[in-house]
């Protein structure tokens, strides 16, 4: 009877332990469901909530208001004929009824003080042979915000080629024309000899304070590049697609090794405890160990992966290498020597029609083992729901699940960012620039 009573007590203890585990497991799953819904690699992902443009909507409203004011009262522009910190190049193509250009430019300029604005040269290229085809052609806000509004070279051969590519809706034509557009942007930026050239797509919004954050990130990228024994890096990425930072299939051996390591460590620890402390043997029975190591731990490991990589292992804030999964070309900053020595000659001489600029650039960088840095958190967000080459929502222009998006961007606090920006402006020490003058 005594032996039977002990067996029943142990069985009740095992059942109670497992039921307690299930309760804790359910609570953990509920918690993760409420916190991991922004992670597209999570089973708890809720796109209808994750894709809500909260901070972006705030910035869009600020940017639109800035653009409306700029149409009536021209804002300050760059006063440096040479040597600005940034030359920002934006190429824009008509989206046939949709335009995000005012939002993009307004978010870049809104909130800058006069000294910041003076150290930026803004080039906006309406990439059409006949620029009147673009919705924003000759808009007062565009004329008043941009420092330079270039056009394609006037030679007949280039004009004819551009017209042919515009009439061709194929991906190959888009890929080839895009490189021609970048040549125009990079050439115009090279004329003012900036420290860095920044290329932005025309359907993004920037955070308040992007200027000082980008400068700080570039300084860190430069230092880390030198720490690696390299002289230069290819670019600093201001945006990456959050959908590509999940549990990548090609890395499954790593996940298996770590999972097995956790199980093995658990087995070794529990076995050591049973051996070292005799009193624990009556609790850590073989049945308990089987449930613990064979059921509970695998369930916890499964929940860890189900919660999503960005939720469980988010990228730390700072500057890190991103040579893989770095989609797309919404916002990149290049040291000017890279532009002059490599990018401009490469795009000018390329006849490649099989890869758009982002893919083409990454393939080239892979072949040369170029360093590519990314800043976390990202400084811009992709808000365009209708692509200039037919992707996305063609009817409403709203974001769809197949469009690049950073889910953490929408968690930005506009008050905190504005305070950070004001504090930086108040404490900033500007290096003298040729031709730059301080406000009286």
Structure in words:
This protein has 440 residues and is α/β, with parallel strands linked by helices. The chain folds into two domains: 2-35 and 247-307, no CATH class; 62-236 and 322-427, Spore Coat Polysaccharide Biosynthesis Protein SpsA, Chain A (Alpha-Beta Complex). Helices cover 49% and strands 10% of the residues. Helix 8 crosses helix 13 (336-349) and helix 10 runs antiparallel to helix 11 (286-307). The longest helix has 34 residues, at 2-35. The radius of gyration is 27 Å and the shape is elongated.
Notable features of this structure?
440 residues, Spore Coat Polysaccharide Biosynthesis Protein SpsA, Chain A, 2 domains, alpha/beta, 15 helices, 7-stranded mixed sheet, 9 strands, disordered C terminus, two-stranded antiparallel sheet, single chain
Mean pLDDT: 88
Total individual domains = 2
Helix fraction by DSSP (H/I, runs of at least 4): 40-55%
Q: Outline the biggest β-sheet.
A: 7 strands, mixed
Order of helices and strands: HHHEHHEHHHEEHEHHHEEHHEEH
Secondary structure tally, helices: 15
**Integer-rounded radius of gyration:** 27 Å
CATH class bucket of the largest domain: Alpha Beta
Distance between the termini: 98 Å
> Outline, from the CA principal axes?
elongated
Extract low-pLDDT stretches: 431-440
- In CATH terms, the superfamily of the largest domain is Spore Coat Polysaccharide Biosynthesis Protein SpsA, Chain A
Task: Based on the coordinates given, report the CATH architecture of the largest domain.
Answer: Alpha-Beta Complex
Strand order of the largest sheet: 2-1-3-7-5-8-6
Helix-strand category: alpha/beta
Which band does the percent of strand residues land in?
Answer: 5-15%
For this structure, the CATH topology of the largest domain is Spore Coat Polysaccharide Biosynthesis Protein SpsA, Chain A
Could you give the count of β-strands? Answer: 9
């Amino acid at each position: 009877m005594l032996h039977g009573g002990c067996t029943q007590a142990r069985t009740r203890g095992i059942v109670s332990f497992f039921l307690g585990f299930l309760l804790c497991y359910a609570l953990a799953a509920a918690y993760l469901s409420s916190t991991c819904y922004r992670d597209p690699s999570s089973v708890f992902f809720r796109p209808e909530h994750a894709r809500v443009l909260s901070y972006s909507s705030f910035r869009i409203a600020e940017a639109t208001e800035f653009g409306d004011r700029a149409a009536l009262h021209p804002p300050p522009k760059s006063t440096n004929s040479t040597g600005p910190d940034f030359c920002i190049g934006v190429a824009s193509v008509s989206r046939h009824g949709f335009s995000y250009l005012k939002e993009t430019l307004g978010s870049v300029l809104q909130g800058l003080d006069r000294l910041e604005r003076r150290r930026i040269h803004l080039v906006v290229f309406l990439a059409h042979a006949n620029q009147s085809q673009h919705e924003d052609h000759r808009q007062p806000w565009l004329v008043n915000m941009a420092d330079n509004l270039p056009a394609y070279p006037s030679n007949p051969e280039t004009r004819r080629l551009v017209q042919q590519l515009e009439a061709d809706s194929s991906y190959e034509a888009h890929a080839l024309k895009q490189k021609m557009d970048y040549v125009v942007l990079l050439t115009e930026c090279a004329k003012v000899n900036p420290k860095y050239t920044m290329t932005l797509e025309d359907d993004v919004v920037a955070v308040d304070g992007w200027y000082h954050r980008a400068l700080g990130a570039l300084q860190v990228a430069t230092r880390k590049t030198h720490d690696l024994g390299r002289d230069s890096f290819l670019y600093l990425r201001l945006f990456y697609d959050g959908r590509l930072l999940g549990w990548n299939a090609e890395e499954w051996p790593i996940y298996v090794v770590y999972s097995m390591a956790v199980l093995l460590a658990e087995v070794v620890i529990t076995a050591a405890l049973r051996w070292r402390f005799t009193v624990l043997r009556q609790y850590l029975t073989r049945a308990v160990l089987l449930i613990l190591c064979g059921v509970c731990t695998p369930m916890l490991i499964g929940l860890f992966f189900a919660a999503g990589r960005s939720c469980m292992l988010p990228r730390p804030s700072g500057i890190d290498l991103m040579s893989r999964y770095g989609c797309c070309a919404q916002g990149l900053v290049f040291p000017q020597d890279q532009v002059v020595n490599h990018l401009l000659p490469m795009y000018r001489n390329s006849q490649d029609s099989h890869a758009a600029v982002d893919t083409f650039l990454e393939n080239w960088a892979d072949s040369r083992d170029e360093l590519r840095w990314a800043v976390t958190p990202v400084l811009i967000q992709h808000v365009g729901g209708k692509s200039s080459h037919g992707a996305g929502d063609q009817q409403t222009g709203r974001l769809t699940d197949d469009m690049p998006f950073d889910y953490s961007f929408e968690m930005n606090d506009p008050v905190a960012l504005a305070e950070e920006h004001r504090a930086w402006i108040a404490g900033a020490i500007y290096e003298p620039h040729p031709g730059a003058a301080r406000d009286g």
